[in-house]
Amino acid sequence: MKSRFVLRVLLANLAVIAVLVFVVPHLMVSPGPLIAGHRDLESDCFACHTPFVGTPASECIACHKVEQIGRFTTKGVAKTDNVTKAAFHQQLRQVDCIACHGDHAGVLKYRRAAGRFSHAMLQPGLLKQCGTCHSAPTDALHRQVGPDCAACHGQERWKPATFDHARFFVLDRDHNVKCATCHTGQDYKQYTCYGCHEHSRGKIADEHLEEGIRDFENCARCHKSADEHDIRWDGRDGDGFRRSRHD
């Protein structure tokens, strides 16, 4: 008899809890208060959530029209700030608001820090237009380079940068100059060593011809640093080199 009574009490409590979850879900299961813009929906969970489904994008875009994001407020007032940066929403491959955005306190308003945003959501034509969303760095190095972010950075992870200049040539105290000294026209796939008084074309030609080297335009192919004794012959035929060794 006692066990039946306990069972009935437990079932009654569960029933009450189940009812309360649907009647006052903001008190029973809410992880925290909403952001300021949604504060008037604090007690109306089903304005955004569908029971046993979650929050479909259709509920979000019922108020936040994709074509107006970054351009107008939800009340239809034209915006004057962040228009360009927010307008990339119109070029997403699919509408999946929850993939990037949360709401309740404890869940980031925009989950950038949690790494939720994926560039794969963008249309291919937008992937190289980094400056439409990201501000250009203002440090000394980035002020010299062009807008080709992909030359050093990947879209899966921004840091660390993938480019290491020492793999090609060590920038010692005599060679740590402005990028444009060697890379003219902001073309960082090309370089020249004839940008300073020490490396004139005539002088370089004389020194290499003495050694029997006729192809000496691609300097970094053999010279990896300013150390004149650190010469790395690659030994490939047909390139003008007469020796195959490492001096």
Provide tags for this entry.
single chain; mainly alpha; 2 domains; elongated; disordered C terminus
* Average predicted confidence as pLDDT: 75
**Low-confidence blocks of residues:** 109-114, 236-247
| Tally of structural domains | 2
User: In what range is the share of β-strand residues?
Assistant: under 5%
Task: Tell me the distance between the termini.
Answer: 97 Å
Radius of gyration: 31 Å
Largest sheet composition = none
Oligomer: single chain
- Compressed to H and E, one letter per element, the order equals HHHHHHH
Structure, described:
The protein has 247 residues and is mainly alpha-helical. It folds into 2 domains: 102 residues, no CATH class; 82 residues, no CATH class. Helices cover 22% and strands 0% of the residues. The chain has 7 helices and no strands. It starts with a helix and ends in a 37-residue tail after the last helix. The C terminus is likely disordered.
